[in-house]
Each structure stands twice: as C-alpha cells, then as structure tokens.
Amino acid sequence: MNVYDRLYVAGSWTTPSNPELLDIRSPHDRSVIGRAAQAQPADVDRAVAAARAAFERGTWRTTAPLERVAVLRRFNALREANAEKIASLISAENGSAGWFTLAGQPGLTRQANAYLKAAEEFGWEETLVPSDPASPVRSVVRREAVGVVAAVIPWNSPFSSATSKIIPALLAGNSVVLKVSPENSLSMGFLAELVEQLGLPEGVLSILPADRETSEYLVSHPDVDKIAFTGSTRAGRRIAAIAGEQLKRVSLELGGKSAAVILPDADVNKAVQGLKFGSLLNNGESCIAQTRILAPREKYEEVVAGLKDLVEALKVGAPDDPDTFIGPMIRPDQQQRVRDYIEIGIKEGARLVTGGPQIPEGLEGGNYVTPTVFADVTNSMRIAQEEIFGPVLVVIAYDDEDEAARIANDSEYGLSGGVWSADEGHALAFARRIRTGTVTVNGAPIGFDGPFGGFKNSGIGREYGAVGLGTYTEFQTVTL
User: Fold this and answer.
1) Fewest beta carbons less than 10 Å away: which of 1, 280, 329, 444?
2) Where are the domains of the chain?
3) How does DSSP classify residue 458?
4) pLDDT for 182-198, tens place per residue?
5) Residue 291's closest CA among 430, 421, 391, 368?
6) Which residues are the active-site residues?
7) Whole-model pTM over 0.90
8) Per-residue DSSP letters for 79-97?
9) What pLDDT is attached to residue 193?
10) Is CATH 3.40.309.10 the classification given to domain 259-448?
11) Which of 172, 89, 156 has the alpha carbon at shortest distance from 123?
12) Cα 78–79–84 angle (5° rounding)?
C-alpha cells in the first residue's frame, strides 16, 4: 500500500498542517489502496510564499532557456523510464483500463518533446525591424515569465494534465504550485518523487493534493499571477470570475460534448471501429470523447447496428485485466451520475439500443456502469447536450451536410470533434465548418505541436507546442 504522509512543498517533503490521511479507494472494489496527506490553506500559503520568493530571487527565472530545456528533458527521460509504474498507479486510482494508461505513455513523451522543441526555437528576445526606415527607434521584444502559476488539474488523466502545465510553465521560468485531485494522490505523489530528482531551486515547484475549497483558496491567493486550469465548465466559470476580479492571467481547458460526423461517403465499418477509441477512451471519462455520433439518414441503421455490435463486444471489468476495455468510473457519485443520465435518455424517448442503467453482472462491488448506445436522439435532448463523462453514446440522424454542420455546432461546447470520409479533402472541407478547437479526420490522434483548447464554453487559451508555451510568458518591449 502506498502512503504519502507528507506534502511536497517548495522542493522538499514537509509535515502537513493536517496530519489526518485520506483513504484512496480502488474504483474496482472500493478497497483502500493507499493513504495520503491533503493540503489545507496553511500549506498553500507556504507553497505560494516559497514560489514568490523563488521567483523574486530569480534563480530559475534567469537561468538560460536552453538550460531549463535540459532540466525538463531529464524529467521527460525519468518519466519514460518509469512509464509502467505510472500507468499502474493511474489505473489503480482512476479505474482506467491498463491498456489505456500504458498506451498513453508515448503520448506524454510526444507532448513533452513538442514543448521542448518549442522552447529551443522560441523567440525569447527579438529586435524588430522598424516599419519606417527613417525611424530612429529600435524595439527589443522580450518574453518574460508570468510569475507564480497556480496549475489546477482534474482526476481523469492526471499525468497528461500535470505535464501539459508544469513543463511549459517551468520552461518559461515560472514558479509553479500544482494542485491535484485527492483521488490522484498516489500517482501525483510519485510525480513529486520524480521531480525531486531534478534538483530544481527551492520554491520553484510544489505539488499539493487538495479538495475544492483549498483549490479555490489557491487560485484566489493574491500572490498567484496566473491560473492554468483543466476541469468542468462550471468550475471554469468560477475561476474566470476570480481571475477577472483580480486581473490574473488565466487559461481554461474545460468540458466538451464533441460530435463525430460520419459523412455519406465514409466507410461505416472503419468509422465505427475508429469510434471505439475516439468515443470510449478512458471509460468515456474524457473531455474530448466524441459521444455525439452524427450519421447520414441513408446509413443511419447501419451505423446504429455497428455501434451496438462494437459496444456489446467490449469487455467491462477490472482495470488490470489485459482484456478489459472499459473499467469502472472513478467514484460512486460519478457512477450514479452516468446511470442517472441513462435514465434521463430513456425518459426523453430515445431508443435504448444496448446497455442501460443496470450495473454489469458480477461487478456490483465497484463503480461500474454498462456501456450504452441511444438511437433516435434529437440534438435538443439532455443526453445530446450535456457532458455525461461516461461510456454513453448518442446517435443523431441528418439529411444533408448543411444539417450535419448545424447539429455539430449546436452545442455550448467546442473542444473537439471528428469527421469520417473516404475523401480526405472532403473531410478537411467539412472540418473547416465545425466550431471546435480541434477536429480529427478519420481517427487521427491529436497532435502536440499545434495548439489545443476550446471554443465557446470549452475554455479560454491554448495548450501544447509554441502557442501553449507562450501562454506562460509576458511581453516586454524595450525601445532604444
């Protein structure tokens, strides 16, 4: 059993202000798999004070960018060397299937490498050519670290969320307080063990598991300069209000209700098999999951039948079973939330193709739900508009591509989406009509060199690559 009875504050393990440890429970059978200290406001005060002091001293901030790159490259190598342990910890905490957590490790490498490449090529300081050749003024534009960053991440994909924030923030020279979910205390405790080996200057990084109240205390702290948040749209609105009131810099990666549009010329079987991953990855507990399936009316029943066969063939079971594709939801309340939405879909009049609110037989002791497909769904139904965050798919018919685009865009969200077509050019043309931050064509994975983030209520700002790195900097112009 993993036990973390201390907190990683300012680069060292310290005694928490509250000695009581939280039981970390397995989503599979609700047994205790670990215990961990949880941060309180007093611990946040210590972490933020140390981060502020480190930033003002400037030891890390004034380190040459390429030296910072070298340190973060070492971190990437450490994480790669421990990929199997990381994957195992996340599966145990989250209920994510082992295939998913292990398969995601190379993605973390690509994510980090994109940031490292961006930092090596970044315009940290540039002298502008005057627009008027006769002008005597020269302008030097510098990119400076923002200051103290409060990075707040959710439970569903902890390592990816953590590294997508701490790597660019540290590359830019900031000090960081990373607030993680209590459910991820074990994997994030191990993250702290890896970070400890880097020898970062005192105060530059703290990693604190804490509840929502302590999280709000952190983002409201007067010595925090920027908030980087991934989580629900509701929480994002609250954080945006705090940031606006205090004029903090803020980036928000929020919820989604993404559409996968199967165009009339698409191969239905290929599209359905691709949606196994695009729609049901991480047990459906993913903000980018494409859970609204838009099918042309002439192929509608073929798509529905294909999804039925696909979902019924998926093994639901223990995360450490190599045959498991769908594991349990993270907590009992999340399990109940998904089951409630399935009941809502039935009451709304959608056709229950497969699945339902019942708990899978033999798995009653864990947080399991039955993967579910609804047909005859209209886009006005709650199951088509609200983020369920579980393995529940809705299939919506359309008559022509204009209607498909209207339905895809008829959402308060705009994070992700997908297009399926036998003609890549056709798919790209349709993708340009979709108001989301990311659109994948024929199941292509999301890239890490380009920016990632949402339109509308799916967020503010972008992560990944040079654009993501830039969000952790301020511009300074020096005229000569």
Assistant:
1) 1
2) 2-254+457-479, 259-448
3) G
4) 999 999 999 999 999 99
5) 391
6) 253, 287
7) yes
8) HHHTHHHHHHHHHHHH---
9) 98
10) yes
11) 172
12) 120
